[in-house]
Amino acid sequence: MLEAYYQTEFIEAGSDEAGRGCYAGPVFAAAVILPVDFYHPLLNDSKQVLPEDRMLLREVILTRAITCAVARVESEEIDRINILQASYLAMHLAIEQLDPIPQLLLIDGNRFRPYRNIPHHCMIKGDGRYASIAAASILAKTYRDEYMRQLHEEYPMYGWGNNKGYGTLEHRIAIEKHGLCKYHRKSYNILPNQIELEWE
Fold first, then answer.
1. The total number of structural domains that make up the chain
2. pTM attached to this predicted model
3. Residue 7 has pLDDT above 90, yes or no
4. How many whole angstroms from its chain centre is CA 10?
């Protein structure tokens, strides 16, 4: 079972990102402050939750969180500053919207760029340990998936409605056939080498 809080002396927020490993689209992040007594039996790391349950949880989190926020950093900015810095930036943009301001940050993963003067703890697999990080993972994942379905309407050939921009076989074949579009992360070096092999 997830732990409700890391501590109760300070106001703590959990933060997580979604889409870091994708070939296309923005990286999203969310930050969430939950009530001390928050509990939901389905809440877990978003990767461990069924898609329909994620949407149910999103509504519960939006309704019951003390405060929460979602932010994104676009693919052009990812290419400019790199995905690690873009992930930090997305989390900072989400944290900055919280009211009240948290006094402690719980960050999923093993690295983070400090936000202002707020202390933080990096938690490896934190989205499976603490409710606030799990809630942030649900928000970041559902909002990003929703956004990628919108981009799918503009570029249906890449299958983003299904693969959400990840490097699936479907997506890689589409890149080989159609090339890259404006939403692809050009710094990821994802153009297929197979094109050259055809001439050998």
1. 1
2. 0.94
3. yes
4. 25
